[in-house]
Write a structure and sequence with these properties.
434 residues; alpha+beta; YojJ-like (1; nine-stranded mixed sheet; 12 helices; 19 strands; DACNV; DNA_integrity_DisA_N_sf; DNA_integrity_scan_DisA_N; Gll4136 protein
């Protein structure tokens, strides 16, 4: 297999920079190709260094300091701090600055000086809100200016963005389009359609009992809330650096899987009572509260109103949802899988996958969101956790597994079009700690 390097990434970014939602008039122009290559090459070399045994991770933004308002700051904007002198732009200077300009909270400002040389002008403090759309949570911050942003999240791992919008990634010598975010697929929400219908029916019953003119909920509200839960679980597992596996199964299999069966067994199972279904309880309470609090609204309300609300009840419910997601992520630290139904009912953890008679030697790696284009790869080089997930999905075609490696890489695995198929969650911004 041939490998891609910063020069390949620069050419790809140059070709795709003006695509997407942003209009050309709103974009900050890219620097010339040779300057872009230098920015990416220097960032790449910095990513290969260590700082007191810590990996070198950072974000940088290529823009003039005057492009960032001096009176702005987190949680909504950028707190721009200029150095009294421009600093050299080298891998070692990036390494030295990385502990002060932490990946999650700041960006290193880079520009061209009067002689056309790349220099570091200072630090822009962003705060954490920019991460919430990817890791789950309410109240996102303002998007970054539509300038060149380079995110270095690990050894040889770069993501290039136009402001907050990802353009392309370089990971393990592979050049990847930023379009492979599994949460944007059609198949993922389709697997939860029946569950959403059940919640909508329960919400409608609560509306009738209230006798009040509750607002109509936007059709994507439940989907957004459900994805928010999954993102929070994944992000928390990554911070543990232990890895883990979450298995989603059809609710109709709950009784079978909690008894002796040929698919999997639990070290720790939970009794079928309300606490096992706490996610579902909280989702319904959030739906009801959101509709009631926007009573009389002439238009449907949904995720936007939820994330922007300052209502104490919604804040408390969101915190409860956040804590439950953290709890499930903690369960994944125990060897074995956490098993959840598509109703978000927690069956147990420490799940051991049997399917001993199944030997999945090849899996399909999806090259697009829907798995219509795939390449086949051997399973010989993957670990026990991945092979177990492949065996289960080969036997239970309605199961979906999320496998988080110790290094933070994530794969969604399911049966698709006659093969065990995996999707790599390729957004490098999600590979870092809170």
């Amino acid at each position: 297999m041939s490998h891609a390097y910063p020069r390949d990434l620069a050419s790809f970014v140059l070709k795709h920079w003006s695509r997407g939602e942003a209009q050309a008039a709103e974009q900050t122009p890219l620097p010339p190709l040779n300057v872009l290559e230098e920015i990416l090459s220097t960032s790449y070399q910095a990513s290969l260094l260590v700082d007191e045994q810590r990996p070198v991770t950072f974000r940088l933004i290529f823009c003039e300091p005057v492009d960032l308002p001096s009176g702005d700051g987190p949680p909504q904007g950028l707190h721009r701090l200029l150095f009294d002198e421009l600093q050299p732009f080298t891998p070692h200077d990036l390494r030295r600055l990385s502990p002060a300009a932490t990946f999650d909270r700041s960006l290193i400002g880079v520009c061209l000086d009067g002689e056309g040389e790349l220099k570091i002008w200072g630090i822009a403090h962003s705060g954490l809100r920019w991460l919430r759309p990817m890791r789950g949570g309410r109240a996102p911050g303002r998007p970054l200016p539509p300038a060149l942003v380079v995110c270095t999240s690990g050894r040889g791992r770069l993501e290039v963005c136009r402001g907050s919008a990802a353009i392309a990634q370089l990971n393990e010598g592979r050049l990847l389009s930023a379009a492979t975010n599994v949460f944007d697929s059609l198949w993922l929400p389709a697997g939860f359609t029946e569950v959403r219908s059940e919640l909508i029916a329960q919400h409608s019953e609560a509306r009738e009992r209230s006798g009040e003119p509750w607002a109509t909920l936007d059709g994507r509200t439940i989907q957004s809330l459900g994805q928010n839960i999954v993102k929070r679980i994944i992000a928390t597992i990554r911070t543990r650096h232990h890895g883990g596996m979450i298995i989603f199964v059809d609710p109709e299999r709950a009784q079978t899987l909690t008894q002796k069966n040929p698919y999997l067994s639990f070290k720790y199972g939970f009794k079928p009572e309300e606490p096992r279904a706490r996610f579902r309880t909280l989702l319904l309470k959030i739906m009801n509260a959101l509709a009631a609090l926007n009573c009389g609204s002439e238009r449907p309300v949904g995720w936007r109103e939820y994330e922007q609300s300052n209502n104490p009840l919604l804040a408390t419910l969101d915190e409860a949802l956040f804590e439950t997601a953290h709890f499930v992520a903690d369960l994944a630290a125990v060897d074995g899988a956490v098993v959840v139904t598509r109703r978000f009912e927690l069956l147990g953890f420490g799940g051991f996958i049997a399917c001993d008679n199944v030997d999945v030697r090849v899996v399909a790696r999806a090259l697009d969101l829907e798995g219509e284009q795939v390449s086949f790869e051997s399973t010989a080089s993957v670990g026990t956790r991945h092979r177990s997930a492949y065996r289960l999905c080969h036997q239970l075609h309605d199961a979906m597994t999320i496998v988080v490696s110790q290094d933070g890489n994530v794969r969604f695995v399911r049966w698709n079009d006659g093969f065990v198929t995996c999707w790599s969650q390729q957004t490098l911004l999600e590979l870092n700690e809170f």
